[in-house]
Known about the structure:
The protein is an alpha/beta fold. The protein has 7 helices and 9 strands. It has a single domain, classed as Rossmann fold (3-Layer(aba) Sandwich). A 5-stranded mixed barrel has the order 5-8-7-6-9, surrounded by 4 helices. The structure holds hypoxanthine (HPA).
Amino acid sequence: MSKMYERLCRALSSVKEKTGHIPEIGIVLGSGLEGIVDETQITCEIPYGEVDGFPVSTAPGHTGSFVFGYLEGVSVVIMRGRIHYYEGYSTAEAVMGVRLMGMMGAKALIITNAAGGVNLGFNAGDLMLITDQICMVPSPLIGENVDELGTRFPDMSEIYSLRLRNIVKAAAEKTDVPLREGVYIQLTGPNYESPAEIRMVRTLGADAVGMSSACEGIAARHMGLETVGISCISNMACGVTDKPLSHEEVKETANRVAPMFRRLLRQTVKDIHDNI
Ligand code: HPA
């Protein structure tokens, strides 16, 4: 058994000691998008610090807990705050939450994040369905393979499930939420990018840039966890406008978009549940 699997099993036991809640859908919440927790009927909340062997999130605005409960009557587990590579953890550690939610029984995963708009047709406040990704941080699968979860050389041709993407697109239409589509690129952070780096990632085919989600996408695909991703374009990326970027702006925009985002997320959860 790999060291990582042992560590995940320890974390899982420690969660199971605190709750018997079995989630159907796992949700990772990005910066400023945590309001959906207020609309969740919470059965149990476990701070990461109380989960044996689990890394603790230090990013400002990321509380760091698993929230168990019901959203639209659907059994969910929500990661309120995530672990980032830039905090000094390995990507293998950063994706432990995603792996754990799959091990808890989640059948589908919804990844959300705040991201910078690279595509010049985007605007701050847009929501973007992630169609594919470019991972510019080390793969979370580096190291001994966790055979219990997946194969050494997993296919990545459909990290974001086409089936779930169609569900989200239909949910967006039903709830009247405009939805862009595009490729998400993950760089290390924690600094925002330079204008030259943004020109580079645009040339590479990215539409949005962030610091969190691509390694999570890889881990989810590795373990066969059906995944969909939604980015909140919290700002246009560096160099698109001449305004310097700040975490405050990211949070402000996320807050402004929050009602629309929550509407989309609730409908998506309901529709995934109906089509699980
Ligand atoms: N770059 C990287 N990550 C981000 C950004 C950005 O512009 N906005 C929100 N997360």
